[in-house]
């Protein structure tokens, strides 16, 4: 399988994850496509990246608000998300492939509990593995020539309930379900993508769409269904360097269940994500992104980040 084919396959395997009500978040940048598109050798691929998302800006609808400006039982103050995400992908040479992704989240959260007129500060700090994703794909060549090959494909898989959803603080108070490292649910993932590489100009582009839906609920909680759409370009310049630019859109429905916060979950987000990459050799590449929100419209009151940062390394195993 040519590396441009592998790049396209990796592009659409994981849905973008946006903010939850109390601040659990992952970057919506599509790291798989950008980090593979400049590599040369075929074979099993990996990606490891680190994300930093400081959600310290409460929003009500599309407006920034101060902590406690809109009265709630809990006034959310801030959540700092530090995520390490490892991904392994394998193509089988006949259009089929599989990808496995596993996150490790380091999360600090603070809110104010309003109890009978008293304001009680509460906090959680934990480092926990999250939910593993296993996604298959089928890909076909969709036109172009040797200098401008293009590919299209579909993805299908599951998010598995591997992360804990019962994490508590030192006072034995469990964190809100949207803050937990895992949802406790099995989610169906379906998507489609298209990718084209322009070898003569050392450039490439991709588009993708993906839908994620929980097929069950767990302990009174079901995360809202989520639709994401990404578009991106990469342009090479100089020996090994690449300029990267993406638009990332996410629409998440409200969570449901007795343990959920339906009035303060879900929303619409549009991000602009510029970045740079550097190919160390034909099998290894490093990259970085800054993600800037263009549109944030949340249900109720939720924490958001004014920007997020992401850096990683990817390559071929052999």
TrEMBL record:
It comes from Massilia cellulosiltytica. Residues 1-20 form the signal peptide. The keyword Signal applies. PROSITE patterns: PROKAR_LIPOPROTEIN (PS51257). Keywords: Signal. InterPro entries: FApF. It holds the Pfam family Phenol_MetA_deg. This is Transporter.
């Amino acid at each position: 399988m040519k590396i441009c084919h592998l790049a396209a396959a990796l592009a659409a395997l994981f849905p973008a994850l946006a903010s939850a009500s109390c601040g659990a978040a992952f970057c919506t940048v599509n790291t798989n496509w950008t980090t593979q598109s400049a590599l040369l050798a075929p074979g099993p691929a990996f990606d490891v990246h680190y994300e930093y998302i400081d959600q310290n800006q409460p929003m009500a609808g599309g407006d920034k608000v101060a902590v406690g400006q809109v009265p709630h039982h809990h006034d959310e103050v801030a959540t700092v998300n530090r995520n390490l995400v490892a991904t392994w992908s394998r193509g089988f040479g006949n259009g089929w492939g599989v990808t496995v992704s596993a996150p490790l989240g380091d999360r600090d959260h603070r809110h104010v509990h309003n109890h009978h007129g008293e304001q009680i500060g509460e906090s959680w700090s934990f480092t926990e593995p999250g939910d593993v994703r296993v996604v298959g794909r089928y890909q076909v060549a969709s036109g172009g020539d040797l200098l401008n090959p293009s590919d299209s494909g579909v993805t299908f898989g599951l998010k598995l309930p591997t992360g804990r959803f019962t994490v508590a603080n030192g006072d034995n108070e469990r964190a809100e379900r949207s803050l937990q490292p895992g949802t406790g649910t099995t989610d169906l993932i379906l998507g489609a993508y298209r990718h084209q590489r322009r070898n003569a100009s050392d450039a490439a582009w991709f588009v993708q769409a993906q839908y994620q839906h929980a097929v069950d609920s767990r302990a009174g909680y079901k995360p809202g269904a989520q639709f994401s759409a990404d578009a991106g370009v990469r342009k090479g310049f100089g020996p090994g360097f690449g300029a990267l630019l993406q638009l990332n859109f996410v629409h998440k429905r409200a969570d449901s269940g007795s343990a959920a916060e339906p009035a303060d979950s879900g929303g619409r987000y549009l991000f602009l994500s510029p970045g740079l990459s550097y190919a160390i050799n034909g099998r290894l590449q490093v990259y970085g992104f800054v993600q800037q929100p263009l549109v944030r419209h949340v249900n109720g009151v939720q924490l958001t980040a004014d920007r997020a940062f992401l850096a990683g390394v990817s390559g071929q195993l052999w």
